[in-house]
Write the structure tokens for this entry.
Amino acid sequence: MVQDRPDPASLSSPAVSSIGVVGGGQLALMLAQEAPGLGLQLHLQAASASDPAVALASSVVLGDADDAEATAALARRCQVITFENEWVPLEALQGLRQAGVRFLPDLDALAALMSKRAQRELLQKLALPTPRWFPLEQVLAPPPAPQEALESPQAGVFIPPGALGADSPRRPELPRGFQYPLMAKSSRGGYDGKGTLPIADQQALEELLASVDPAGWLLEERVAFEMELALVAARDQHGNVVCYPLVQTHQQQQVCDWVLFPAPVSHAVEAFARNIAASVLTALDYVGLLAIEFFFGPAGLQVNELAPRTHNSGHYTIEACACSQFGQQLRLAALLPMGSPEPLVPGALMVNLLGRDGTQERDEADCQALAALPGAHLHWYGKSESSPGRKLGHLTLLLESSGNAALQQEAQAKLQEVRSIWPLP
């Protein structure tokens, strides 16, 4: 049975009453749904008047996330600005910060997480486990010329350093210790499988080099993992850190299909994941919400990616935890005490509802059937367009079993029920 949440009337008055959000998609929508219960007004910077969160906003500034002028207009309507995603023009926003605009997370902390390369460098600096990697341009760097190659004994001709191969193309070479297969990742942007590409052999590497700017990509070893995990953590302005439960995530064609709480791992693994989160948050003096994606397998726990915001893997917290990830982000922005991340139920399964071929009428009928499932909570994002694989909504099903084995059996049975109504695209 779900425990009761705290009465909103018992909440202390927020020091901040108006919050701006850059973005108007489903993450902003779920922030907007939480805001009234905390006595907060939410103002949006949205790319389109048809974006999912617009209807619930106190006011809207139309502009893409990288439109700094729109963000300046948003700043005049609110006391603090937070973000739906991290793809914002940091340099252009520095002027607003210097003028006194408060951002959550702070722009300096955000800068350290803006690119996958910056994330990898941070994790290495903190000695935290992550797949081995190297910048893509490194495969093009000429190897140091050995001294014996600079002089030709056969002809007795001296060849100046740097002249060998200066005008002829050289096959890219992997750094010592790396071998195929590898995974190529765009350093900036990329989500739901976009911006990633498996590199199986030399030909695939050369094709990648011919199609992208090497400076914007990195290569990392392919990880033999048993499962993927995720954790959402939060840190307040006093340095306090709280973590939501570690969850298992399952990908379908590199898009998250479902999330299971709790993850079927040992307490030691979960404790290590929490320690990693606390290390990153503390090192960056980070205030806000941070999601961490992990690989788990023979090499142990390895950090895959960091996301400085609410996260798809944390949607289950809306029904399953005392304070959802969205309520937590708003609390941090409003300088309210952090809410409890403790679970209210033994477990939960969150299933993403991905776009598929079909009509709007079919979607509506299937949504009604999904909402009628026992323990189900439907979240439909109201997007104006659908395409195969696009996240249109999600369904959270609360679980009642105790013990990992029983919970996994219950989750698998519920997943089959969902798939009988809403199959994968």
Observations:
- The longest helix spans residues 404-421.
- The first strand starts at residue 18 and ends at 22.
- Residues 6-10, 148-168 have pLDDT under 50 and may be disordered.
